[in-house]
Structures are given as structure tokens and as C-alpha cells.
Amino acid sequence: MNFNILSWLVWVPVAGAIAILFVPRDKGDIIKWMAAGFTGLQVILAAVLWMNFDKDYVGFQFMEKADWIPSFNISYMLGVDGLSIPMVALTALLSFLCVFVSWKIDKAPKGYFSLFLLLDAGMMGVFLALDFFLFYIFWEVMLLPMYFLIGIWGGPQREYAAIKFFLYTLFGSVLMLIAILALYFACGRTFNMIELMQTAPTALGTLSWWGFSGLKVVWILLFIGFAIKVPIFPFHTWLPLAHVEAPTAISVILAGVLLKMGTYGMLRINFPMIPDGTVWFAGALAVLALINVIWGALCALAQTDLKKMVAYSSINHMGYVMLGMAAVVAAGPQHGSNSAAAQLGLNGAVLQMFNHGTITAMLFILVGVVYDRVHHRNIDGFGGLASRTPIYAGVVALAWFAGLGLPGLSGFISEAMCFLGAFPVYRTIVMISTLGILLNAAYFLWSYQRIFLGKLNEKYADLEEINGRELFTVIPLAILVILLGVYPSPMIDVMKATMAHIVELVQVSPLLSVN
Amino acid sequence: MGNIQSISYFIPELIVTATVLVAVVADLFTSTRKVHKIGYLVIGGLAIAAFALWLSSPEDSSTLFLGTIVIDPFSRIFKFIFLLATIVAVMMSLNSDELNSVRTGEYYALMAAMVLGMSLMASSVDLIMIYLSIEVVSIVSFILAGYLRTQVRSNEAALKYVIYGAFSSGLMLYGLSLLYGLTGTTKVLELGSAVAALGPGSDLPLTAATILIMAGFGYKVAVVPFHFWTPDVYEGAPTPVTAYLSVAPKAAGFALLIRFFNSVFGEEQPLNGAVWEAIEGVPWQDILMVLAAVTMTVGNLIAIQQDNIKRLLAYSSIAHAGYILMAVPVLSQEGIYAIIFYIIVYLFMQLGAFFLAIVVSNRYETENIDDYSGIGWKSPYIGFFMAIFMFSLTGIPPTAGFIGKMYLFAALINGGSQFYWLAIVGVLNSVISLYYYMRVIKVMYFEGEREKDLYRPVGASAAIILATGIPSIIFGIRWSFLADWVNSSLKFFVSGF
User: Fold this and answer.
1) Which residue of B has its CA nearest to A142?
2) Owning domain of residue A388
3) Total of domains in chain A
């Protein structure tokens, strides 16, 4: 293909944001349809990209490169591989659906949808950038619209939530900036990620920071930056607040796409560029994964606010991703050169990233549906809704089951893969984390029971059924959840080659040799 | 070079001097109603000076007036910065309601005089000349700060400024005399080798001299602990003066600081050579590093508590001085490159933010941040650019402030592992600063509703906002032009070069 499809993916939403600024502000419908049009175009582009993607090719495809600031060796460089393409698809899909989720936004729709499209562009840019500087710019640019979207259109505590989110993520990203600059100078002044993947593993060896090996410090600095996004315990406290206060569509984007940036960043940068650091930290990563799984589930169990429960479930689900990632060390001789397990773990992690994106999006959208009607989210404040709104209850049941990892739905496959991949190396940790599944089932089923079963709460005797627009936002996700639950191979095929490559890159670390 | 020959290299400064004199005389013959026209006259004079400077050869490098000042690419770029900052400040003053109550003829003349003093600061290489140029700038600043004669706040500002100024220049003079006593020369270019030849016995007096001299420079750039004058002076002075004082004299102070420390306490050919090391024995690098870390932290922590926009920007300017100071002890071309780049970027964003404070104060009659409530909806134009300036001052891409900070941190990281802790302190300070800068945005946007009648600045006000706002964005996206220009200015004059 000879047109720059990746640039189109990034810049179409920006064009949309600018175009929307020229629409008179009382024309709310036109603005919404324009936003739908631009994100729809992005979905088509993503689909075209997916069709033309060569899944057996190891390395980056559809590369674009142009000089940006030659004096500092910064370039505009985009590319896609098996790790980024599921994320690109997820971003495009969720952005499109979220336009419809936001259909009821009446306060300053022009500003809302412009910022939303900028956010979309920023996310797309993060997943496609291959120049570290460009990556950082996209990473940060995304914060600005997010700050306004939470702060202006959010719930009662929105101001606090917005600034807390901003402070946390900026804290992480400035540390990342230090690491990026350290890599830049250590590896001969380049931001080119492909070059860095080749030179960084050895170049960092000589660096020393206050007596620590520079490699470990750089790894940790990058890790903190990404961990805050994931979020990994103990950096998770911004998440429940931001997710709960944000408007529904923004919660979906936050949980569905933004959290993945953390794990994406680790797989894209920490793993291939600093394999020694990865091996050194893998055990700790597994422990943190365990904490995330158990802690997230226990917190979710304790919530009375439905949206908060869903928010904490994200912490739990991202824990599985990290567990799968930690499995990468299985490929080393020290652990019996079990490449299969390592690849299984990484494939599971990326698949779980995608699946969590679709599942959590459903969860948040469905919470939003009931909130729009009754204006509260207190789990105990409902009761017996199933008899009044059977379709809604059915869709929620599907989403809730997907969330608790019922076999036959997508979440089960990826969680199982993460467990299986990590099992040979972290036997105890995996055994304890399976408890998380049990806890998941507990809070999902318990909340379902309190909301939908039992005697109908008289207050909601004339509750409106889920409408067509809302169903339209959930059904594509539901189809994906079921489809990937019974037949996940198309997705795994796409990422397989790249994951095998990452495993190879980490495997070479001398820390993994037997002695 | 002798006095007569030097004059042909001194034309921009002479034009500035002529502007001052013409403005003073014109003031005598102008009625109060028309006195603001002198502002335009000054702008014209400074523009001609800038043009003359532009015509001068960028590669000229020599000493003038019997070795008291130099011309070199380094001072040339700073002179451009001073001229630009002053022109913007004069334009801001023309659009400020605050100055309507007083006769402003000599106000504009003083601003032009400031340019002369600052140009000399950036180019002096003689201890006496350094002292004189600092005093020219200081005394003019005192008058400007107290220009609103009828207001107690303004008088207080001027008085505090004078007292602190006198005290710190006294300290500096003592430091300079110690240095002269040790080496027997006042020529900065000779001091380097003279200091290097002193031997370890003189380390203590040299260190004392460094600290004392730093008091003078630190006062000019408002480095902690010489910053106590800043908030009161900045709050009391007329807002355009505050904006001006927080940018231009600071830039001049840094020009002097860089040239002085690198020439006196650096070995080899400063700035022009590849190998460039600090002399041993005098821990000036450590002193500057600690000062930088303390300065930005104190500035940021106090800025958090401010409710007045001028005070907030004043304290934040202390923090910015700290960021800039980080790169001085690195002793590398990259460090100085980053400093100059940052000063240019800072000029746009700081003057822009102050000007918006003036516009808001003209229109809504408040300097209190809480009264900014809903301005983002009432005047999207002000809101948008204020947001840009706040993001830029915090250092968030895609704004120019980020690029400036990135260069500073890059210089530190490349400087070696002894600077890493400072880089970490620096980035963490950016996070702290986010909190109070975002407060302004929060008040403007998260409160209030869209209104029917939108306020929109017009004419010269709009032009100033665009002139400061557009570079704040553009230099965050494409800064190659600026980078190349700064890069070509990294040359000091050194004897024998």
C-alpha cells in the first residue's frame, strides 16, 4: 500500500477536531455526526490495515519516516507490528462506539467532541510511534484533553479527580523522560526505537547511577512511568476516582485504552530494550501482579458504588496481564528454556489487554445506561430490575460473566493463557492468583443478584428499557467477546510472531543462563 | 580595541542611548494626553537598534573600549532577547489601564535605558564594568517598580527593592574585591588563568569570593536565598513592569553568570573548546547545583499557596530561574545552549501570561485567581491562550516550554552522573508546578457556564497575545529555526581565539 495509512489513522481525528471547531455551537447534532464520521473513517482505516497486515512478518510494517528536528536527531516515525495492531483496532473501535455513548452530552458539545477526537489521536499516536520522542509527545498530549474531559464533564468530585489523574501521570512521565534521555545519550544520540532495541541492551551496561547499575535505574524509571498508567499497586489510587468521576464514554476510554498503554509501553520498551532489567525484575513483576489481582478483587468486593466496583475490577484484570508478561523468563535456560510457556504468557497478556478493553468497555457502558436513568449507582439501591428490563438484564449478564472469566467468553481464554504461561516459573503465585478468579465471581455475581434479582424495587417500576443507541454501542463488543471466547486464533495469529520475537530478545539476557 | 575604533561596533547601543535621550526630551514637549506616544517612539528606536544589531556581523568577536566589554555571538543573541522583551513590555504598558493615572513619558525612556544596562551586562568582561552595568539595571528597575507614586504598594515595592539591591551589591562588591586582591586583575579574561595559578592555599578565599559574588548575581536572577524581594516587588510594581522584571533582567543576570563562572572558574577555552573542565578546589559547581535545587523547590512550594495571579507568576519565576540555573554548572555547550533556548521560550510564555493577567485586570478588575472563575467560557480567546501559557510554563508538550525543559534535562543527563540527582529534582518540580498552574485553568474552565456576550480582546491587545502565544505553540512543534540560531550563538570571545 502506498498511501500513509498510519499517518491517516493518527491525523484523521485531529482533522475532525479542527473541523468541529468551525461548526456553530448550537448545531449539536451535526457535531456528533461529524465525530461519528471521523471516528468511523478511522475504524475503516484500521480494518484496512488489519486486512493488509502480514501476520508472519517479524518487525514493523507500513513504516513511515520523516525528519522532524535533525539537529537533535528526532524523526517522525510510525510503524505497526503484532503488538500494536490489536491496540490500534481496540482504540479505533472504542473511540467510534464512545461517540455514541456520549450522544447525550449537552454541555458544550463542540468542546467535548473536539477534545475527544484529540484524545483519540493521542492514543493512536502512542501505539504507532516508533520514535521515542514522538512517543513521549503523544503520551503527554493525551493528558491535556483527558484533564479537561474529566474536569469539565465529570461528576461531583471531578476537579479533584482531574488534577489527581494529571499529577499522577505527569509524575510517571517525567521520570520516563529522564530514562528516555539517558537512553538517548547512552545509545549514540538516537530516539529511533528500532535502533534502540539493538543498541540499548549492551550500551546501558556501562552506565552507573549512584552506584546502582544504570540499566536497573533506567528500567525502574520507565517502569514507574508505565506502572502508573496500568495502574500497578501502589500507584493505583488515581484510578477509582478518575474512572468514577469521568463521564461514561471517558471511563470507557480510560479503562479500555489508557490502561493498556502502560503494559504496551513495557512490552514495547522495557522488554526489548533492557532485557537484563526485565529478567531482574520479572519476579517482582509477578508479585505485583498477584497483589493487583487480589487487591483489586477485594476492593471491588467492598464497593457499594457500581462504577467503582467496575473500576477496581480493572486493577484485578490488569494483574493477569502482568502475570502473563512476567512469564517471559520461562524461555531462559535457568527455567528450562521453556519458550512455549513464555510465548503463551505474552500472547495471553496481549490478548488479555484486548479482551479487557472490550469487556470493561461493556461494563462501563452498561453502568452508564442505568445511571442515566436513575442517577445513582448504589448497588443496594436497586433490586429486581430483571423483571422490568429483561433485555438490559440479559446484556448485563453477558458482560458480568465475561468479567468474571466464564469459559466460552473471551476473558477466560486470555486469563487461562496468562496462568498457564506463568505456571512453570511462578507456581505458588499462580496458584494464589487463581483465587482472584473466585473473588471476581463473588463480586460480579453478588452485585448482579442485588441489582437484578429478588423483588422489584417499587421506585423503578417504570424503568425504561435499554434503547437502540445504547444497544448499538454494546453489541459489537458483545460479539467480539463471544467470538474470541470460542475462536481466539485470528487474534493470536496476528500477534504470535511478534511475541516470539520479544521472547527471543529477552531470552538472550546473561542473567538467565544456568550457573 | 581602542575607544574610537570600538564605536563602530557599538552602534546598536548608541541607538538605544539616543532613544533614551530623545524620549526624555520629547517628554518635556508633550502634553499629558498624548504622552503615551513616547511609547511608540521608544518602540521605534528599539526596533531600529534591533535592525542595526541584525546588520552587524554575527561572527564578530572582539574586545571593545580597552578590554572592558566584548562583542561576540553570545552577547549578540542576548541583546536580541533584551530588545524583544523590552519592545513587548512597552507594548504591554501601552495597553495597561494601570498606567493611565501617571505621566508615562520617562517611564518609556527608562525602559530603553534598561536595554542599555542589560546589553552591557551581557557583554562586560571587567569586574568594574560588571558592577556598573548591574547597577544601571538595578537603579532603573527601582524607579520602574515604584512608578505608581500614589500607590502605597508600589512605593513599598521600590523601597524593598532598593534595600535588598543595595545589600546584595555590597556583598558582590566585596566578593569582587577579594578576587581582585587574590589575582591583581579586574579583567575577567585574565582571571581564569590567574585563578588557576593560585594553588590550593587560596581555595578558601576563592570560595568565599564565589559565594559573595553569587549573592549579587543571585539577587538579579532571584535565586533562593536572595529572592525575598521578588514577591512584594512583583506584586507592588505595575504589572507590565513585573512582567518585564521577571524576564529581561533575569536573562541579563544569566548571561553575566554564565560568562563569569565559565571564564573564571573553568579551564581551557570556555565554550569554544571541546575539553572544558572546572578548576579544582573551588566547589562552585556544587554551590550552584544546590542553589538551583533549592530555588526551584522553594519557588514552587510557595507558589502553590498564592491567590494573586501576579504573586503566583512571581514565585513561579523563581522556580524557572532554578530550572535555568541547573544547566550553568554543567559546563558544556549543551548546557548553555539549553539556557539560551529556555530563556527565549520563557520570554514568550511568561510575558504572555502576564499580559493576559493585564487583560483580565483591565476587563474584570481582578488579580485574584478565584475571580477568574468561568473566564474560559466568558472569553474563550483569553481562556485558550492562558491555558497554552500555563501548559507551556509547566512544560507539557506540544508547547515550547516542554522543549526548553527537555533541553535543560538533556544537558544534565549528558553532563555526567553527578548531575542526575538534579535532573530528578527538576522533573519532580515540574510535577509540583503543574498543581498551581492547573489551578488557574481549573478556575477558568471547570467553573462557570457559557455566556451570550463573549469578550474578545481586539487591536493591539490581540496582537500581543498572538505574538506571545503563537511562538509558545510553534516552538513546541517546529523549533529547528530557533535551535539553529541558538546553536550559532554559542561562542564567547576569549583572548587568543
Assistant:
1) B397
2) 275-509
3) 1
